[in-house]
Amino acid sequence: MRKLIYGINLTLDGCCDHTKGGGYEDVHEYFTDFMREGDLLVYGRITYELMVPFWPNVARNQSMDEVANEFARVFDSKDKLVFSRTLETAEDEKTRIVRTNLRDEIIKLKQQEGRNILLGGVDLPSQLIEMGLVDEFHFVIQPIIAGAGRRLFDRTNLVETLDLQLVESKVLKSGCVALHYVK
User: How far is CA 167 from the centre of its chain?
Assistant: First the structure.
């Protein structure tokens, strides 16, 4: 059975607003390696629209530094699934939009053959965590206190506490800390 693995980058105070953090090279390297572990990226509309067309354009034009260009190439090579009730069309030919039952679709995907399913964003992962469908968590904590902005899990309503087991921690050159947890 495939695993659903959530990955996100946030500040020390839990801010996950992409405009509040730093653009650390080693964080791009970490998430490039993270994406290599899966064959499907799953997002909600907001995160998808932050990522596409930006990263596919970087992949085509190789317009950033070597590390960001590699992140873009790996991102662009992956199939993507977007859960949205409002997105009409996908800007990326490797993207499929799904409007059906979130829980049923994820369960069906997890039962299919293939590599891990990688999950990003905030709202969609919160819903899937509430449903008990996320198997692993990768948090990269930046050495920044944002002081304002959207907080991770602000809108998550768990019936009971979700206990996780730390399986790996890694201090990156930038001072960011990568934490890998499993249920």
Answer: 19
